[in-house]
Every structure is written in C-alpha cells, then in structure tokens.
Amino acid sequence: MVWIVYLVTDNRALAWTAFGLLVPVALLGFTLFARWLPARRAAVGGDQAPPEGHFPVPVVAAHGVLAVATVILVLLTALGIGGS
Description:
Elements: H1 2-9, H2 12-44, H3 57-79
Helix pairs in contact: 1-2, 2-3
C-alpha cells in the first residue's frame, strides 16, 4: 500500500518507507527459502517430506527472481536513479 501511495504522490520519503518495509519481507522470504531447501532434498530423496518440499522448482525460482528484481527496482527508485 505504501508503494501505491508513493506512485500516486511521488513523495521520496514514501519510497524509502516502502523499501524499509520491503527489506524485512525479503529477509523472511530468504529464511523460508533456506527452510525449503532441506525439505526439497527430502522430497527428491523419497523421504517423508513436509508439504513445502513439493513446491515446483521453477515456481520457487521465478518467485525468487521476481522478488530480487522488486527489491532492486524499489531501491533504485528510492535513490532517484532513472527518474524523469
């Protein structure tokens, strides 16, 4: 929501606020990815794996790439790089 308000108002402080809120979310996503890796290995090995071990690898990879791109683009916008 903060990012949408930034897009409407073009207030630089809101861009930094959105980035500040995005960093903990990205860290949580990285933590979940670190938890997914052993579950995925267990699922591939035929062991009893938790449900998250059955997420398709392309979906997890695409989600990660889009998440990294989002963080980078928000940071670049907050820094004013590429602005008009």
